[in-house]
Fold this sequence. Notes:
Elements: H1 14-20, E1 33-37, H2 42-52, E2 58-61, H3 71-83, E3 87-90, H4 92-100, H5 104-114, E4 118-121, H6 130-142, E5 146-151, H7 162-175, E6 179-182, H8 202-212, E7 219-222, H9 226-236, E8 242-245, H10 250-257, H11 262-274, H12 291-294
Parallel strand pairs: 1-2, 1-8, 2-3, 4-5, 5-6, 6-7, 7-8
Helix pairs in contact: 2-3, 7-8
Amino acid sequence: MTESGFKSPWEGVxxxxxxxxxxxxxxxxxxxxxxxxxxxxxxxLRDLLALAGDHVDHWKFGFGxxxxxxxxxxxxxxxxxxxxxxxTYPGGTLLEAAVVQEHCRVFMMRAAKLGFGxxxxxxxxxxxxxxxxxxxxxxxxxxxxxxxxxxxxxDPLRQPNADELAEQALLDLAWGASWVIVEGRESGxxxxxxxxxxxxxxxxxxxxxxxxGDAASRLIWEAPLRSQQAYLVRHFGANVSLGxxxxxxCLCLEAxxxxxxxxxxxxxxxxxxATGQWDPAQVENGPPIRxxxxxx
Length: 296
């Protein structure tokens, strides 16, 4: 099941077709949506993906949750996600716990055996020398896993500055990471690009993106709050990569990306009027189409 097979129920309504098709289709390396799973059951997952599976790219089993569920349930979920071609990985905190116990390589091999497609390499809690971080990326690749790294700290009192985040992101990409997640936690407050109220620190965001340049397309911004998602979509466009999206918000985020929610549709409507593409006073040409005629 891939994005190429997606067919909108509203196909044929030209204006809606044009809006929806602004999004890059799956499989994609930019504009990804990463969901954080803190406790979705196998049945709930199947129901969710039946509705929104075409709009999800990455599925992260948050922090250490995958170590606390029955093996059969985890395997069922990983198989369902594999059927939808969604990249899966355990949370970075679980790997950090393995590193502290000196079981990094064993962790990588077990993750691959369980059926994960990637791992998240982070130091949200612990400190890692640069060389150790590079070797962990190599270790993941040697195990057949896609390395996804994370920059930033979980402790609000230990936040790196924009230059430090950008430098580490560029190093990770040079060392072989496929994506770099910018830490935002599940709260989205007092972390990374967000202040204590959850508002985006615009100068901080601008500084990071200016330093990483073209590599900004390979950053995944953790943005758990809808207001943060709206800001980043308006700032970067529909195809910005966003993470820590709650499972129940997958469709809401895709609607936001496509300009089908107030926060982004308002700008579309204003632009249509300003450019003369739409005149609110203009009556549509031709008689209305009866539903029964359309279906005949």
